[in-house]
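Methods: holo model generation. Sequences were used as deposited, without trimming of termini or removal of tags, and paired with ligand SMILES retrieved from the corresponding compound records. Each pair was processed once, and we did not select among multiple samples. The sequence and dTDP-4-keto-6-deoxyglucose SMILES for this entry were:
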Amino acid sequence: MSQFSIIDTPLFDLKVIERKPIGDSRGHLARIFCADQLKDAGWKKPIAQINQTMTKSRGTVRGLHFQNPPYAEMKLISCLQGEIWDVAVDLRKNSPTFLQWHAERLSSENYRALLIPEGFAHGFQTLTDDCELLYLHSAPYKPAAEGGIRPNDPHLAIDWPLDFYEISARDSEHPLLNDLFEGIEL
Ligand SMILES: Cc1cn([C@H]2C[C@H](O)[C@@H](COP(=O)(O)OP(=O)(O)O[C@H]3O[C@H](C)C(=O)[C@H](O)[C@H]3O)O2)c(=O)[nH]c1=O
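and the model returned the structure below.
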């Protein structure tokens, strides 16, 4: 019996993974990752890297980041403390949902994670103070292969829930998309 519910989204291959905690009088246990049970959701590679971020203030935005081939990566984003509005943008060349975005609320309470395929950009906005995230990556961090998109790029028109409280200088200066951007060829 799987310890996850795999939920489709409007963007093909982008999945919500809902953990099913096993509780008892002491509390609960929940799997964050299980290769056998998540291969049906599209995670078919070893975990290459696991990151953690702590974001102090509500309204902070991190992202939108992606890695280009050959270091294109899947990510499994889990929120272990607080609540975030997690965004994935389809950058796959020739995808029927190219440049479309989808967002999910992830929190320590709803046990929801977002499984983001290769070829997507990822970012989030915190909805509470003190948000702790766990990122599973299917490829190592390669700065030379990393790309970024400005979270308030008018081409995407992402409907962020809050005004941007804080954003890194780097994230606020990513290049804006233009009609010449054809996407990532995987
Ligand atoms: C990703 C990464 C970063 N770093 C270094 C690079 C910088 O010196 C510092 C902070 O990196 P950055 O500002 O890129 O971190 P975020 O803006 O929080 O990016 C994170 O949040 C967005 C939403 C994501 O999707 C990224 O995958 C994730 O890295 O950590 C490392 O040393 N190793 C790593 O694996």
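The pocket of dTDP-4-keto-6-deoxyglucose is lined by residues 49, 51, 53, 62-63, 65, 122-124, 135, 141, 168 (CB under 6 Å).
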